[in-house]
Amino acid sequence: MANHHDHSHGHDHHEEHEQLKVLGFWIFVVTDCILFGTLFATYAVMMNSFAGGPTGKELFEMPGIIASTFILLTSSFTSGLAVLAMNKGKVNELIAWLAVTAALGLAFVVLEVNEFTHLVHEGATMATSGYWSSFFTLVGTHGLHVSIGLFWMVGLMMQLKRRGITAVTRRKITNLSLYWHFLDVVWIFLFTVVYLMGVM
Amino acid sequence: MWEDIKEFASTFFVTGDPLIYGADVSIVLTILAIVFVLTKYKKWGWLWREWLTTVDHKRIGIMYLISSLLMLFRGGVDALLMRLQLAFPNLEFLHADHYNAIFTTHGTIMILFMAMPMMFGLFNMVVPLQIGARDVAFPFLNALSFWLFFLGAMLFNLSFVIGGSPDAGWLSYPPLSQNDFSPGPGQNFWIWGIQISGIGSLATGINFIVTILKMRAPGMTLSKMPLFSWSVLSSSIMIIFAFPILTVTIALLFLDRFAGAHFFTMDGGGNPMMYLNLIWMWGHPEVYIVVVPAFGIFSEVVATFSRKRIFGYKSMVWAMMVIAIASFFTWAHHFFTMGTSASVIAFFAISTMVIAIPTGVKVFNWLFTMFRGRISFKQPMLWTIAFIPCFLVGGATGVMLAVAPADYQYHNSYFLIAHFHQVLIGGVVFGYLAGIYYWWPKLFGFKLDEKLGRWGFWFWNIGFYICFMPQYALGFMGMTRRYYTYGWDRGWEDLNLVSTVGAFMMGIGFIFQVWQITYSIKHGERDTTGDPWDARTLEWSIPSPAPFYNFATVPQVKEADDWWATKQAKANGTYKPEPVHLEPIHMPKNSGIPIVMSTFWFLIGFGLTFGWVWMAVIGFIGVAVCMWVRSFQYDTDYYVPVDEVRRTEASLGRVL
C-alpha cells in the first residue's frame, strides 16, 4: 500500500541524498582550509612581532607538544579503524573505536589547555604581543575544532547505539572521520610551522 | 535603583537627536501595527507554518527579496541624508559624527544586507527551477542561511537606536575601528552583524555548488546548463574561497577589541595594514560575487528578448570562470598608496586590467546576441540595455584607477566614489532589477505593470547620471570621500547640488517601483501560460506561480535552451511527448530550528557587542542544543502522493 510504495522509493532517494551531503561536507572542508590558511598567513606575518615580550623559543615545552602530536596522530588512525569496522558492518566495534578516538581527542584537548595555562603563567597571553595573539588564535582555533569534533562524536555514538549502521549514520560517520583526518593534517602543519620552526 | 536604570538607559539607547526619536517612534508603531494585524486576523499560526519554518527555496527567495528591498530603502535613506548634507557648503543638517555613522551604515548595508540577499533571493527563486530540480541540495541549511542573514541584518540595524551606529567606514579599518578611537558598541555591532550573516552566506555558497553540480535534470550536461546557473556556480565558488577570509578577519578585529589582542593595533607588534590586505582579499572577490550573477541575468534576458540563442555561450562560461579566478589576485589595488615595492604594485595593476578582457568579451557577446535579433523592449530588456553603456563607463574608469601612478591622484577621491557606484548600481542593481522583473511572474503569477515601471526606469537612469557624473569631476577638483562639509571657497557647490538632485531622482524612481509592485498585486497582467515572455529555459515550462514541488515529472533535457527547442518542435509538429509517469514526490519537512538557532546567534552577537558574556554563553548553549536536536532528527522528509500532485496540477490548469 501507500507505505510500502513510499519505502521502495525512499531507499534510492536516501542513498542519493546521503552522497550529496558527503560532497557538501568536502566543500565545507575546503572552506575550513581557507580559514586555517588565513590564520597561518596571519601567524607568518606576526612571527617576529614579540614587542619585547617572550618568544616561542623561550616558552615552548616540546616534550608535551610531541606527546600531544602522537596522541592526535593515533586518534586519526583509530578513527580509520572505526570506519573499517563500519564497512564490515560491526556496530559495536565501530562504537568502541570511536570511543578510543574520543578519549585520545580528549587527552589532546586537556594537554592543550595545560599548555595554555602554563604559557599564561609564564606571562604570554593574547594581549602580550602580536606574536602571542596569533599563536593563541591559530592553535586555539584548532583546539576548538577538536572539541567540537568530540561533541559531535559523542552524539553520533548515541545515534549508532540507537539505530545501528544505516545509510544515514554511515554518511555521518564518513563525514566525521573526514573532519577528524582533516584536523590531523592541520595539526601536522601547525606542529611544523609553529613549534618546530618556533624552537629552531 | 531608579538612577541606575536612568543611567543605563541613557547610554544603552541612542539619544539627543530628533531624527533618532522619530525613528524610535516609527519602529515602535510599525511593530505594534504588525502585531495588531497578525493577532486580529489570527495569522500567527499561518506565519509560523507557511513562512518562518519553511524550507521551500521559492519562499526563502521571496523572504530574501522582501528583506533586501527593505534594506535598499534603509541604505537609500542614508544616501539621501548624505546628499542633503552635501547639497550646499557649510550646511549643518548632520553633525560630523552623525555623518560618519551614516556613510558607514550606507556602505555596509548596501553591499552586505541589500546586494547579497537580493542575489541570494534570485539564486533561490531561479536556480532549482532552471536546472529542473525540486529544491536545493540542503533545504534545511538554506533556511538556516536565510535566518542567519536576517538576524545578522537586524542586529546591525539595531545599532541605529540602541548603543550607537558604527562610524569607522564600511570596512571598519583599524586603527580607527579599535577601542582607542571607537569605544562603545558601534563597531561590535558591525562585527557581529556581518559575522552572523556571513556564516549564512558561506553555507549558501556550499549549498548552490552542490545543487548545481549534482541536481541537474537528466540530460542537462554542464555545457547545456543555462548561463544564469553558470553565473551562480561561478559566484558560489568565489564565496567559498572568499568568505572564510572575512570570517577570520573580523574575528581577529573582535579579538583586538574584546581580548586586547595585537593583530591590527599600533602597538604590541600589531599591523593595521594587515587588516587592509585581509579584508580586501575578501572584499575584492566580493564585488565580483555580486556582479557575476548580474551578468548571468543579462545573458538570459538578452537571449529571451532578442529571440535568439546567446552569442558565444562557451566564451561566456569561460569569461565567468576567468573572472572568478582573477578576482583573487587584484586585492592590493585598493591601497596602491600603502607604499609597497614597485613590482608588487605593477603586478596588481596588471592583474586588475586583465579583468577587463573577459568582461569585454561578455559585453561583445551581449551586443552580438542583440545584433539582428527581434528585440522587444520589455522592462527586463530595458534595464539590460541601460546597463551596457553604464557598465562600460564604470569599467573604463576602473581601468583608469588601476593605472597605479595615476591612482595616487584619484585615491579616495570622489572619482573613486563615482566609479564604484557606476559598476555597483549600473551593473549589480540594474542586473538584479532586470532579473526581478524577468522572474517576477514565475514567482507570483503576475507581471509588474509596464507603465509605472517605465517611469521608475527613467527616473533611476537619468537620476543616476545626474548624480554620479558630477562626482567624477568633483574628484578631479580635489574633493575626497567622507567629507561631511566644505566651504564656499572650494568651488564645489554647483556640482554637489546637481549630484544631490540626481540622487533624489533615483529615490523617486524607487518610489515608482514600490507603487508599481503594490499596484500590480491587484492590477498586474496575470500569467496563465507559465511562459509570459516566450522564453527559453526550463523554469518557463511549469505553471506560474510554480507549485511547491516545482516539476510534476522530472524533465528530460536534450539540448541547451531545452524549453525553446520543445516549443519549436511543437510548432513544427515534430514533438513527441514522453509518456507521463507520475511518482510520489520526495520533499523535505518544514523546521523551526533555523529561526530558533539564528535567534541564539543573535543573542551571541548582542551579548558580545555589549560585553555581556552571560548572554553570549546562553546563545552558544542554545546554538549547540539546536545542532544536537537536529542531529537526532531522522524523520525530516515525506512523500507527496500521486493524487495530490495530480490535483495540484489540475488546479493550475495542467492535465496529466
From TrEMBL, chain A:
UniProtKB keywords:
Cell membrane, Electron transport, Membrane, Oxidoreductase, Transmembrane, Transmembrane helix, Transport
A GO molecular function assigned to this protein is: cytochrome-c oxidase activity
Matching entries from Gene3D superfamilies are given as: Cytochrome c oxidase, subunit III, four-helix bundle
The alphabetized list of GO BP terms reads:
aerobic electron transport chain
Pfam families for the chain: COX3
Q: Which residues form the Heme-copper oxidase subunit III family profile domain?
A: 1-199
**Coiled-coil segments:** none
Q: Which residue ranges does UniProt annotate as crossing the membrane?
A: 23-45, 65-87, 94-111, 131-157, 178-198
Instruction: Tell me where in or outside the cell this protein is found.
Output: Cell membrane
Chief site of localization = membrane
Q: How does it sit in the membrane?
A: Multi-pass membrane protein
Gene Ontology CC: plasma membrane
- Described purpose of this protein according to its UniProt entry: Cytochrome bo(3) ubiquinol terminal oxidase is the component of the aerobic respiratory chain of E.coli that predominates when cells are grown at high aeration. Has proton pump activity across the membrane in addition to electron transfer, pumping 2 protons/electron.
**Its quaternary structure?**
Heterooctamer of two A chains, two B chains, two C chains and two D chains.
In which family does this protein belong, per the annotation? Belongs to the cytochrome c oxidase subunit 3 family.
Protein name (record): Cytochrome bo(3) ubiquinol oxidase subunit 3
- Give the organism, scientific name: Brevibacillus gelatini
From TrEMBL, chain B:
GO CC terms on record?
A: plasma membrane
Q: Where's it mainly located?
A: membrane
Q: How does the entry describe its membrane topology?
A: Multi-pass membrane protein
Which GO BP terms apply?
Answer: aerobic respiration; electron transport coupled proton transport; respiratory electron transport chain
Q: Which reaction does it catalyse?
A: 4 Fe(II)-[cytochrome c] + O2 + 8 H(+)(in) = 4 Fe(III)-[cytochrome c] + 2 H2O + 4 H(+)(out)
Specify the pathway: Energy metabolism; oxidative phosphorylation
Does Iron show up as a keyword for this record?
A: yes
Enzyme Commission (EC) number: 7.1.1.9
What's in the keyword line of the UniProt record?
Cell membrane, Copper, Electron transport, Heme, Iron, Membrane, Metal-binding, Respiratory chain, Translocase, Transmembrane, Transmembrane helix, Transport
Alphabetized InterPro entries for the sequence: Cyt_c_oxase-like_su1_dom, Cyt_c_oxase-like_su1_sf, Cyt_C_Oxase_1
- Span-the-membrane segments of this chain are 20-39, 60-81, 101-127, 139-162, 189-215, 227-255, 287-305, 317-336, 342-368, 380-404, 416-440, 452-475, 495-515, 600-630
Occurrences of domain Cytochrome oxidase subunit I profile (ranges): 40-558
Q: What class of enzyme is it?
A: translocase
Q: Which GO terms describe its molecular function?
A: cytochrome bo3 ubiquinol oxidase activity; cytochrome-c oxidase activity; heme binding; metal ion binding
The protein's matches in PANTHER family, at most eight in alphabetical order, are given as: CYTOCHROME BO(3) UBIQUINOL OXIDASE SUBUNIT 1, CYTOCHROME C OXIDASE SUBUNIT 1
What's this protein's name?
Answer: Cytochrome c oxidase subunit 1
The organism encoding this protein is Brevibacillus gelatini
